[in-house]
Specification:
The protein is of the alpha/beta class. The protein folds into two domains: 6-54, Helicase, Ruva Protein, domain 3, CATH 1.10.8.420; 68-198, Dna Topoisomerase Vi A Subunit, Chain: A, domain 2 (3-Layer(aba) Sandwich). It has seven helices and seven strands, in the order αααβββαβαβαβαβ. Strands 4-3-5-6-7 form a five-stranded mixed β-sheet. A two-stranded antiparallel sheet has the order 1-2. Helix 4 packs across helix 7.
Length: 199
C-alpha cells in the first residue's frame, strides 16, 4: 500500500482499527469516502462526533441514550414488572428487534469471568439488586449469552435473587450454545423468549 499518499494511508489505518474491518475492507471504504461528495463525508464525520459527545448511559437500564432516561425506560406502555437482564446494549437492541419482549431491561455491561479478572463487583449486579428491592419487578428474565461465562453469570444472579419473592426465568434453547445475542436472528430470539423457563 506504499503507493498511496500518507493522508490516505492514515485514513485506511484508522478505518482498519474498527472491529471486523480488515485492511482490504478499510481500503475500499477509504476509496468510497474519497469518491463521495464533501457534504456526505462531512455528515458522516459530524454524526460520529455527535454520537461520541451526546451518547450516555440511561440511568435506569444502562443502555445507550441521548437523554438521561432512554426511550424504553421512559415508555409507560412497557411492563415494569418484567425485567430482562442482558450483557451489553447490543443484546438489548437484538431483543427489541425480535419484538418478543415488552418489559424493561437491565444491562450488566459484562459477564462474570474469573479467568479475565471480572468478578461480581465489576458488572452491574448491585444496581440489579437495587431495582429488585424497589418491589416493582415480578419476573427477571436472564438473557445472558449461552457461553460458559453467560451461563455462570445467569446461575450467579439466580442464586443472588433467591431471597426475593419473584420469578426468575432463563431464555429457552434456540439461542445456539456459545452464541452472542447480537448475532442471533430475530425469529430465534422471539422463540427463545416465548419458551423461557424457570431456573
Amino acid at each position: 500500500m506504499g503507493h498511496y499518499p500518507p493522508s490516505i494511508l492514515n485514513l485506511i489505518k484508522r478505518i482498519a482499527k474498527l472491529p471486523g474491518i480488515g485492511e482490504k475492507t478499510a481500503e475500499r471504504l477509504a476509496m468510497h469516502i474519497l469518491r463521495s461528495p464533501r457534504t456526505e463525508v462531512q455528515q458522516l464525520s459530524n454524526s460520529i462526533i455527535t454520537a461520541k459527545e451526546n451518547i450516555r448511559l440511561c440511568k435506569h437500564c444502562f443502555g445507550f441514550s441521548d437523554d438521561e432516561v432512554c426511550q424504553i425506560c421512559s415508555n409507560p406502555a412497557r411492563d415494569a414488572a418484567l425485567l430482562c437482564v442482558v450483557e451489553q446494549p447490543a443484546d438489548m437492541v437484538a431483543m427489541e428487534k425480535s419484538g418478543a419482549f415488552n418489559g424493561r431491561y437491565h444491562i450488566l455491561s459484562g459477564v462474570l469471568s474469573p479467568m479475565n479478572g471480572v468478578g461480581p463487583e465489576d458488572i452491574r449486579l448491585d444496581e440489579l439488586t437495587a431495582k429488585i428491592e424497589r418491589g416493582q419487578v415480578k419476573e427477571v428474565v436472564l438473557a445472558t449469552s449461552t457461553t460458559v461465562e453467560g451461563d455462570a453469570t445467569a446461575a450467579y444472579i439466580k442464586e443472588r435473587l433467591v431471597k426475593y419473592t419473584l420469578k426468575v426465568t432463563r431464555i429457552a434453547s434456540g439461542v445456539p450454545i456459545g452464541g452472542d445475542l447480537k448475532y442471533v436472528d430475530q425469529v430465534t430470539l422471539q422463540k427463545a423468549m416465548e419458551k423461557r423457563h424457570d431456573l
